[in-house]
Amino acid sequence: MISVVIVDDQPLLRAGFSMILQSVDDLELVGEASNGREAIEMVAAQQPDVVLMDIRMPELDGVEATRRITAVPNAPAVLMLTTFDLDEYVYASLRAGASGFLLKDAPGDDLLDAIRVVANGDALIAPSVTRRLINDFVAAPVASTNPGLAELTDRENDVLLLMARGLSNSEIATELILGETTIKTHVGRILMKLGARDRVQAVIAAYEAGVISPGDASTS
Which domain does 170 fall in, by range? Predict the structure, then answer.
C-alpha cells in the first residue's frame, strides 16, 4: 500500500484528488494540508510514501516545502502539481528535490500512475513541460561539475543519456539489448556515483555539467 499526503490550498482540488485515490486499492490517503507549513508537519506525523504538492500556495510555497521535506533521511517522494505547464517554478521544484512534475488537469489514471512511478523511486515529468525544462538548462549558467560524472563507465553514460530522454528501465533495456535487471543495476550505480536521490537529479547533474545537451535528449 502506497501512502499519500495531498497538499493544495484549494479544498475542491483536494477533494477531487482524494476521490481519485479512493478509486484504487493500492493507494491510501493519510493526510491533507493547505499550505507548505502544514505539509511539513503532516509529513513528519504521517511519514507518507508520496506527497502530492501544489507549487503556488500561501504562507510557504511548494518549492520551499519540498526542499525542507526532502532534506531529511527517508524522505517521501514529492510529485509537484500545477495548473500551468509554463510555471516558472518547474526547474526550482526539481532542484529542490521533487521526483516528478504533473499538470493538475492530467487524467486521473495518469495521476495514479505518476504516484506509483515516484513511489517506486523513478522520476516523471509531464511531456508538455519537457522542452521548456531543457531550454531552462541551456539558458542557465553552468553551476558546477559533479565529480561523479568522471567515474561513470561508457555503458553507464549510455544509460544516463537514455534516462535523459525519459525512457523507462524496460525501454532502456530494449534500446541497449540488455536485461532489465542489468539496467536497474546500472541506474543504481549512476545514482550512487553522482550522489543523486533519483533519476531527475542525475539528469540535472549531467545537464549542468554539459555532458548532455538538448539534442542528445531529443527522442528519435
Answer: 144-217
DSSP reduced 3-state for 168? coil
Cβ pair 45, 31 in contact under 8 A: yes
Copy the grid coordinates of residue 147: 565529480
To which H or E segment does residue 31 belong?
strand 27-33
* CATH of residue 14: 3.40.50.2300
Mean pLDDT of the chain: 82
**CB neighbours of residue 30 within 10 Å:** 18
- 205 and 110 within one domain: no
Whether residues 122 and 155 share a domain: the answer is no
- Rounded to 5 degrees, what are φ and ψ at 183? -65, -45
User: Which residue is associated with the grid cell 543504481?
Assistant: 188
Distance separating alpha carbons of residues 62 and 82, to the nearest angstrom: 10
Number of domains composing the chain: 2
What is the tens place of the pLDDT at every residue in 165-204? 777 788 899 999 999 899 989 998 998 898 887 777 787 7
Residue at a domain's end among 110, 136, 162 = 136
Identify whether the C-beta of residue 194 lies closer than 8 Å to the C-beta of residue 146.
yes
